[in-house]
Prior knowledge:
The protein is built from 17 helices and nine strands. The protein is of the alpha/beta class. Strand 8 and strand 9 form a beta hairpin.
Amino acid sequence: MRRLLVPAAALPIFVLLARPAALQQQRSSVSSDVVFIGTNHNLAFLHPGFSPAHIRALLSHVDPAALCLELKPDWPRADGIPTFPQEQYAALTWAERTRIPVFGVDWETPAVRALPPIRRMADAVALLDSGDQFRRFREEYVATAQWTAGEAFGEAPDDLESFQRQNLPLTVDRWPKEDSADTVRDDRIADNIRAVVTNHPGQRVAIVFGSYHYLPLKRRLESTQNIRVLPPLRYLPLDTGGLTRGWHPDDAVLLLGANLDDWRSIASPQSRNHQRTKELLDRLRHERPNSVITRYYEARWRMLFGDLNESRRVLRQIVDDGGTTGLPYVADTRWSWPPLRTFELKARFYLAAANDLAGDHVAAARDYRQLLSLPQQQLVVRALWPETRVDLRPYIESLIREPYRGGLFEAYRASLAMGR
């Protein structure tokens, strides 16, 4: 029997994510430690030494009474667990498991906006007459591919422990001058964290946040009586057992997506460590044999190496079987392109792409049109960074006019679809 994952909107979230400002304010003379785990928002799905399991293992070592995240206090919990910034996925799934209360403590300038804006791909003529826009894209893309390759193969010293040591200096003389544009935001974040600490007197509170905020928050929080902000170095190194326990069954799904379905890897598959891809796929086969998710990634693995006949056979079988195997969390284009909401829909898209690559555009166009017949709410999809909604219809229509060909051209087309 196939294991069907429910859509993100239906996922139960067992953690308490409260508004810090609403917490009871009371001053305590008891000293409290705030452990700041610094992150780079792009590492957790790329660097093998800064994986979601590493973040969870470190949180287990810290063993906090409460967890503060770079989420707004009123973040839309009904949408499901976010996957960008990627450390939020790791931290929230850890909190679900341990039942530790979670608090969104971020702050942004208030904006009156019912829904994120919708981005639509410009006229497909831009694909054929690329000009300077394409050249600029190519330059940026090549630079990004070089950076992501270094992270994916673990070449950069950005494993979790090295990152904490390099990016969280302690001495006052190393504090740089703050950017005035961020001052108000860091003031409000610090206020929100103080509210959490006040309600957990004498207990350890963990913060998982972009490392850029460490020094401003340390300065602000330590101006408050009896709060000490510490890097997590005393809880390192991590042990093998902790990393094993830190693994989550859905990690393979997201990490395989980062290696096979990231829009950035379309033209540079060599920028991903495919030995790791194979290990993740073997793990998925063991944990979820014959599931739609496993079969989908097996087909994408075969497409990577040009086995179009077998990949098309598997994808066609998934499509013909029907079903609605939802993505387990809020999709992000770094691990799911295009960010359609079920694996069956993604299979139909890549079946069409594989047919195009095999020279059968007639068959490809049939499946593109099938996708276009979906209700609008399935084709206007949320993107997380920046927070927008992407209308996939002009993108799919462009594929009917101009067949999928792979390589840099398709990465460019994807970037246009996202309004970049």
